[in-house]
Amino acid sequence: MRYFFYKTIYKNPARPTKELLIDIADINMVIDDRSLAKQHPSYRKIYKTVNTVIEGEFWNHAKPVNGKNVKLIGFREHFVLGVEWEETTLFKQYEQELQEKPNVQGCRDMHELIRLYEEKYDVLYHQLALEGIKSARHNVDIEPIYIYIHGDGRFVYTSGGNHRLNMAKVLGLKSVPVFVRGRHVEWQRIRDEYQTLGLAAFKQKYPSLAEHPDLQP
Description:
This is ParB/Sulfiredoxin domain-containing protein. The chain is an alpha/beta fold and 217 residues long. It has helices spanning 2-7, 33-39, 44-48, 70-80, 89-98, 110-131, 162-171, 185-197, 199-205, and strands at 19-23, 27-30, 52-54, 63-64, 146-149, 155-157, 175-184.
């Protein structure tokens, strides 16, 4: 229903089934929409929906990705260096979190967390090493990886799917299939302009955006 509503106000709304294949290296921002939804009731609708056009202060929470990604560090320690899960930087953080929270990753103590990572994520890592990250478009058993698209076309990573994305980085995978949870209203304006101008004129006006995955059919 949202798509048909958007067709009444935008020239080029994206279909909710649109899946993008994007370069992992191009995901250079992050926004913790899950935490925002818990802290701010006004953001819950954003977190629970997909393919929305978003404006306002929500975008102020998007931050650059930096080298202090504890999950990525922990994965490199475990999968590349062979460090046991409980000795990784990631699990040291989990141990601190368990002192403040009733559970972490759905686990009530470190033993449950170790078992979860050994039984689920060790297997997932080796699966990704063999098969890469599969598309979720025609497979209900695969949870999609979602991103947002900022006003200038930058990809903003969200909560959900972060284990797979960080494993992909450790494995050196180049691309990942994603769905778009939301687009900045300014990016939607650019999508509309692409529809109005046509490829040649758009490429002349926005040469760096002409090959953007979200503008491809």
